[in-house]
Amino acid sequence: MKPFPPYRIQVVKEIPITTRQQREEALARASYNAFDLPSNMVTIDLLTDSGTGAVSAAQEAAAAQADRSYAGSDSYYRFRRALDDLTSYPHIFPVHQGRAAERVLFSSVLKPGQISLSNTHFDTTRANVELLGAEARDLPCPEFGDLSSQEPFKGNIDLEALEAILRGPERERVGQVLITITNNGGGGQPVSMANLRAVRALCDRYGVPFFLDAARFAENSWLVVQREPGYGHLTPREVARQTFALADGCVASLKKDAIAPMGAVIGVRDPELAKQCEANLIATEGFRTYGGLAAHDLERVAQGIEEVLDPNYLRSREADAAYFAELVTNAGVDIVQPPGIHALYLNAGRLLPHIPPHGFPGHALACEMYLTGGVRCVELGSLYLGKFDENHNLIEPAPFELVRMAIPRRTYTQAHLEYVADVLADIAKNPDRVASYRVVDAPKLLRHFNLKLERI
Ligand code: F0G
């Protein structure tokens, strides 16, 4: 029997239907930067899966009961119980979102000149490491280099490269190892338990703290249950518990796998580190029992964590992503294989060989998807990861020219996904019509969000 979502839709929100002419004008007004499009000009929004999931009636009921006491509110204790049960970390702090968790934790862990090693740092994670004067170094496993291969855990860290650094002269400079589950910056691929255990052993041997960036802990756990020998008999909650138990602590945006509009958590074992985080949190985010979140957000997160670990939900979400992947591949567009859960990554470089890296094939495809069907998604290629000179000329392209189509949780039906695949099929029938782009303005910091481009 085909998996189906374990919920029905009770509240809906209308989506805008626009004409090509309106979209042409809107994209030109946005200087061809999708982040500058008003959402009322977007039909299917696949920009992110963060804070965009549909909340449940149970989440809204809990939110309505929220206790807004400044200190020690009922909502905080509910949040604590949900995270205590999952993580086993003795020190848990709510924070408003993942990047705040990164800032608070890293500023107690990392010193200027130190190195943070990761399978791949997410962009805010990298920024928070670099703002402290430390270096963020990615060590993705070699299997990720082949986008078409079916290796099940292409999100793993390269253990040999990790050990070589820990054994070598740079060991003194390594401030932390941070594993992102699932690996959002690396094709949304999962990390295996075997890889996490090996990281634990290396960190013990060389005395380095090991943290998780656990934004998609439930989806990673589900893919472990599905793909890793020896885990098929466990529930996703059991695997998630084992995952958190392996690390010294975590940062986790809860806008993804807690299916909440806002929220994040810091969890740590070390009491000294906890004290430092707490002082920083109280000074900059909020008191330790709300950390910058409204009580209703604490409630939505606590309830969302229960819902996201339901195997029926995860099975249906994985099936949706797999179905979407099949439609897109049949439409003639290659994706990073095997498909993960939270997003599909389109191989724009392969679809648009007539556009060189300095014409930004990923960005060109994302723009064309918007113009053709009002679908918004984002480039992960040379525009984002390449190196540029002062005149905005690309001097070093990214290894791949990808476009990420994130899939918000419980938000779109299979009919919406079929529509997006139709848009892609239309483009893939005649890819030569897709034009190149040129950067006309870009700030130094967080350039991706603030770029201005023109079509060539
Ligand atoms: N870590 C990972 C792996 C993420 O994917 C994100 C956010 C963050 C940290 C930061 O969390 O947004 O709550 O501050 N990712 C979103 C995305 C924005 O679209 O992938 P945040």
UniProtKB/TrEMBL annotation:
Coiled coil: none annotated. One of its GO terms (molecular function) is tryptophanase activity. Its cofactor is pyridoxal 5'-phosphate. It comes from the Bacteria. Keywords: Lyase, Pyridoxal phosphate. This is Tryptophanase. Residues 45-422 form the Aromatic amino acid beta-eliminating lyase/threonine aldolase domain. Belongs to the beta-eliminating lyase family. Its EC number is 4.1.99.1. It holds the Pfam family Beta_elim_lyase. InterPro entries: ArAA_b-elim_lyase/Thr_aldolase, PyrdxlP-dep_Trfase, PyrdxlP-dep_Trfase_major, PyrdxlP-dep_Trfase_small. The keyword Transmembrane helix does not apply.
